Amino acid sequence: MSRIEKQTIDTQHCVLSERSRGHFAGTCLMVSTAVAVLFSSSVAHALPVGDDNVRPKYKLLRYEENWSNFDGSAGDDYWDPIKHVDLNDDGSYWVGFGGEMRFRGEAWENFGFSDAPSRDDSFALARLLIYSDFHFGDRLRFYFEGKSALSSDRDLPGGKRGLDEDTLDLQNGFAEYTFDIKDDMTLTARLGRQELSFGKQRLVSPLPWANTKRTWDAAKLILRFDRWRIDGFASRYAAVQKHQFNDWRPGPNFYGVYAAGKVGPKDKPYDLDLYWLGLDKRMGAFNGSAGEEDRHTIGARFGGKIAESNFDFDLEGAYQFGEVGSADISAFAFASQVGYTFTDPDWKPRLYVGFDYASGDDKAGDGDVGTFNQLFPLGHAYYGYMDFVGRQNSVDLSTGISFKPHKKIKVKADGHFFWRADTDDAMYHAGGGVVRAGALSNESEVGQELDITVAYKVDQHMSVVGGYSHFFAGDFLKESGTNADMDWFYFQVLYKF
Predict the structure, then answer these.
(1) Residue 71, SS3 per DSSP
(2) d(Cα 296, Cα 321) in Å, to the nearest integer?
(3) Quick check: 174 and 190 in contact, CB under 8 A?
(4) pLDDT classification of 247: cutoffs 50, 70, 90
(5) CB atoms within 10 A of CB 59
(6) Cβ neighbours of residue 28 closer than 8 Å, sequence gap 6 or more
(7) Where would a tag sit more exposed on the chain, N or C end, judged by fewer CB atoms within 10 A?
């Protein structure tokens, strides 16, 4: 029996045993999957990587990788032969393949600020993504990416959520055609299912942290020229249906224009984003106002390094208007971060401080909605890794430090101090849902969160991340219901090819 066959049997044994072993099943599945990925990594690097064969870096959106000029026949890496496979004699038609395997184990204590025994649980999450990328000349392209996201038993409130499980589905599936407008300008038309990601992902993200990720059925035009890219799109969100094909019919509709460019000196430019985003939702509810939500977001982001110093900054602001039912919307948000990177060439320490504000509603059901809608965010990266506070009716003062004790290891510690922006409005989580109603307390202090992460980049394919987070319940939580401090541990293995 081969090592791979034996590993497969061991993994199947863990899955079958899950029904009877409770929390231990998640640990068993985690270990066996991690071993399988580690083994595949060792096989993939049996051949050396050649310095003269530069390959593209893996990106958040895999369809944005450009393998058109890559010669996979060199065989420096195990996966090289499948990254660019010629389909005709002159190589103008070709196809590339790739994907990722990810496994994460999580353990929660006092989930939802409750110390009831039912709020302690551990479980495992596994995700597989496989893509094929067909090119017919320099203009026509078809891209397909399948997904399978699975979860062991999750006994916390909500059970196996749409964030955790999507047994088999289409993550990306689109056709695109590129037109040459002039020498330095192109226009790409793309139609089909696709992930969306804009700027720093504060408002629009495929949410890579979630086991199932986000995706949209969309029509998009992409204009590229000089140092600018402008995306115009009309889409409908494809909500996860765990055991059926994800369907765009429930919505909501999402559309807009997002421009991202470089300004200033060419050697050290600044990032500038300008955007308008529209959301049309059948039902929205904010602090006593409910009905069809027609919301528009206009905003800008500006960031980069400060002159010749070691300081960097990132600023973003957005204003929202529209209607929720018969109520008028007037809401805003502001995000900022200033960092300093020390000159130590080995440990590369960086300190930062940030301030985020998202408006809330000052009076329930008064015909005006002041609650900011965070849209489709990557809240995980900005409002604490536990995802219990979202960019809605919130104030977050954050600080953190990162350093590299080894060239492949990065350690990061983040601290967050949370308040409600308006004491008449609710506390919302990273998904936009209500954690606690606003009327339960007049206190503004939500609490504090400490996040510690250690990341190890094994090689270009594989990374390992472990983390611990603790949430200290504040006065609002203490007055409004259960208020136990929360703990969360996780361990994740990611392999891309």
Answers:
(1) coil
(2) 5
(3) yes
(4) confident
(5) 12
(6) 14, 17, 18, 21
(7) N
Count of H-run helices and E-run strands, the chain = 4, 22
CATH code at position 66: 2.40.160.100
Residue carrying structure tokens 């999402």: 254
Cα-Cα end-to-end distance for the chain: 26
pLDDT per residue over 356-371, tens digit each? 999 999 999 899 999 9
Together in a domain, 230 and 373: yes
Q: Which domain holds residue 11?
A: 1-44
Instruction: Collect all residues with Cβ–Cβ distance below 8 Å to 116 and sequence separation of at least 6.
Output: none
* Average pLDDT along the chain: 89
pTM across the whole model: 0.88
CA distance 97 to 92: 17
256 and 113 fall within a common domain: yes
Candidate ranges 79-93, 118-132, 154-168; pick with highest mean pLDDT: 118-132
Burial class of 163 by CB neighbour count within 10 A (0 to 12, 13 to 18, 19+): buried
- Give the tens place of pLDDT for each residue, 438-470: 999 999 999 999 999 999 999 999 999 999 999
